[in-house]
Design brief:
The complex is a heterodimer. By secondary structure, chain A is an all-alpha fold. Chain A has one domain. In chain A, 76% of the residues lie in helices and 0% in strands. Chain B has 2 domains: 112 residues, no CATH class; 138 residues, no CATH class. Chain B is built from 10 helices and 3 strands; from the N terminus they run ααβββαααααααα. Chain B has a 3-stranded antiparallel β-sheet with strand order 1-2-3, covered by helices on one side. The mean pLDDT of chain B is 86. By secondary structure, chain B is mainly alpha-helical. In chain B, helix 2 packs parallel to helix 3, helix 5 packs across helix 6 and helix 7 runs parallel beside helix 10. Classes of the chains: A mainly alpha, B mainly alpha. Chains A and B meet through helix 1, helix 4, helix 5 and helix 6 of A and helix 2, helix 3, helix 5, helix 8 and helix 9 of B.
Chain lengths: 152, 263
């Protein structure tokens, strides 16, 4: 449990560090951190029941959903939150392992990890696409502001 | 009539400037087109037509009532500054609410464009913290995380002072990947950090093209296939370059140590 909490904290810290790198307005750092941490928590929770790709899909959907919600709430583009929030889920480790196995001549493992990385990336793509199909009105309704229609 | 024509031109140039700032700093194509259209409509230009690609904006206007205007602007991809995207977005809301005359809007956009980015020192530190945190996240311990922090700092120093001014994207990413791998190998050799893999995974994270990847998906989902595929190509290229750099680093390390370092 403590390990999981530590991981979530690390995910939040990492997400915030990347939002600094991408010049997110300072007042949004905490939201970016919370979204990134939640994404990782969902990923770990979903990993208990399913494979990595399905867990990535679930976590991505949660991250995008929260980003859009926060975007409507704080009147700013969803991009501001989701780019750094999605970072813990991007298959950076997959890139490393694929390179590692290729260099060490373990072709079978290289193919396997490369395939997994692509699968995870596809899951992230689907997650983003699915949640972006939800009409903006729904988020406006959730936030409780029935204002003019605006794209996040 | 003369002043009306002038207004028309001014409106379209202001809209183009807004689009320029958005596109340059990491906004999606859809948002750029939408913002340009909204600004034009608000100031009474009905005939605007904008075609936005990932590195350029084509804008024309003109009809029987309105004077003709056309401009093409090449916009090379530079860094991501989401605060500028957020600021232009906010401004376009306020323009629609009627708080700005066209001159004021134009001036406000100029000042957004001139907004300073983060200082290099801050960026380097952020890269280090990000590397350390992600190393921890992917299974490293405190020692691994510390060395990932150092490697992340060195990496961004390399990106900002060598890569951005002097080297192409390809060489920067290959070099960055190799640099990080070698540094982590050295630190591992010196006893700082015990899991070389997690150290390297954490410290390559600042290179990972998250913005290009996310925007590419977003653009394709919006139906902007050309820009989406260009951005996806960009993201894939960077992924491959990092992998090549890391691979080169690993094979150097294994030569130096006679294969002992590889777990």
């Amino acid at each position: 449990m403590t390990e999981l909490l530590l991981e979530i904290t690390a995910a939040m810290a990492g997400t915030i560090a990347f939002s600094v790198l991408f010049d997110v307005p300072r007042r949004f750092y905490p939201y970016c951190g919370i979204i990134g941490g939640t994404g990782w928590a969902v990923y770990r929770a979903a990993s208990l029941f399913s494979g990595a790709a399905a867990a990535s899909l679930a976590a991505t959907m949660v991250v995008i959903f929260l980003s859009r919600l926060t975007a409507v709430w704080k009147h700013c583009p969803a991009t501001v939150f989701l780019i750094s929030g999605i970072f813990p889920l991007v298959p950076g480790a997959g890139v490393y392992w694929t390179a590692y196995y290729i260099v060490t001549d373990q072709l079978r493992m290289a193919l396997e990890t490369g395939y997994d990385a692509v699968k995870n990336a596809a899951a992230i793509v689907l997650g983003i696409v699915f949640v972006f199909e939800i009409p903006q009105q729904f988020f406006i309704f959730l936030v409780g502001e029935h204002r003019k229609k605006e794209k996040p | 009539m003369e002043s009306l024509d002038q207004d028309n031109k001014k409106v379209m140039e202001t809209a183009l400037l807004a689009g320029h700032i958005l596109l340059e700093n990491g906004a999606e194509i859809f948002r750029v087109e939408e913002t340009i259209r909204r600004i034009c409509l608000h100031y009474g230009v009905q005939s605007e037509n904008a075609f936005v690609l990932s590195n350029g904006i084509f804008i024309t206007g003109g009809s029987e009532q309105e004077k003709f205007f056309a401009k093409v602007q090449h916009i090379p991809v530079s860094g991501t500054h989401l605060n500028k995207v957020a600021a232009v977005n906010q401004l376009s809301r306020e323009i629609e609410a009627g708080y700005y005359t066209i001159e004021e809007a134009s001036m406000a956009l100029e000042s957004i464009k001139a907004m300073p980015g983060k200082r290099r020192r801050t960026q380097i530190l952020a890269s280090g913290v990000g590397s350390g945190a992600f190393c921890l996240l992917f299974g490293g311990n405190a020692g691994d995380s510390l060395s990932a922090f150092l490697a992340g700092v060195a990496l961004y120093w390399f990106v900002l002072f060598m890569g951005a001014p002097h080297l192409s994207k390809i060489v920067t990413n290959i070099g960055g990947g190799a640099l990080v791998t070698l540094l982590c190998g050295l630190m591992h050799f010196a006893g700082l950090g015990s899991h070389l893999n997690f150290m390297i995974i954490g410290s390559i994270m600042p290179l990972i093209p998250g913005v290009a990847f996310t925007n590419a998906i977003h653009d394709v989902a919006d139906g902007d296939y050309i820009s989406g595929s260009v951005r996806m190509l960009d993201a894939l290229l960077v992924f491959f370059c990092i992998a090549i750099g890391v691979g080169m680093g690993i094979s150097c390390l294994s030569r130096i140590t006679g294969g002992k370092l590889l777990p």
